[in-house]
Amino acid sequence: MSAIEKTYTIEGMSCGGCVNSLTRVLKSVPGLEPVKVEVGRAVLRFDPAVITADTIKAAVDRAGFSVIAEQ
Fold first, then answer.
1. What pLDDT digit, counting tens, does each position of 27-44 carry?
2. What range does the domain containing 12 cover?
3. pTM attached to this predicted model
4. Most buried of the four, 1, 2, 30, 67, by CB within 10 Å?
5. Can you spell out the DSSP letters for 2-39?
6. CATH number of the domain to which 28 belongs
């Protein structure tokens, strides 16, 4: 299967430093590409056969934030 893009609503972000922290953690996950990260939202590209929702949520949690919605 090929890569897809999904938008995630992220809770707990309030500044550019939060954006940088989340982007750094997301880039460290093999197969996960942060397309656009901004306060409260992240657009991610990944292969759903390789990257699961749990993997994404765990990475966001590691950065100190929470996924509250997925579109």
1. 999 999 999 999 999 999
2. 4-70
3. 0.92
4. 67
5. --EEEEEEEES--SHHHHHHHHHHHHTSTTEEEEEEET
6. 3.30.70.100
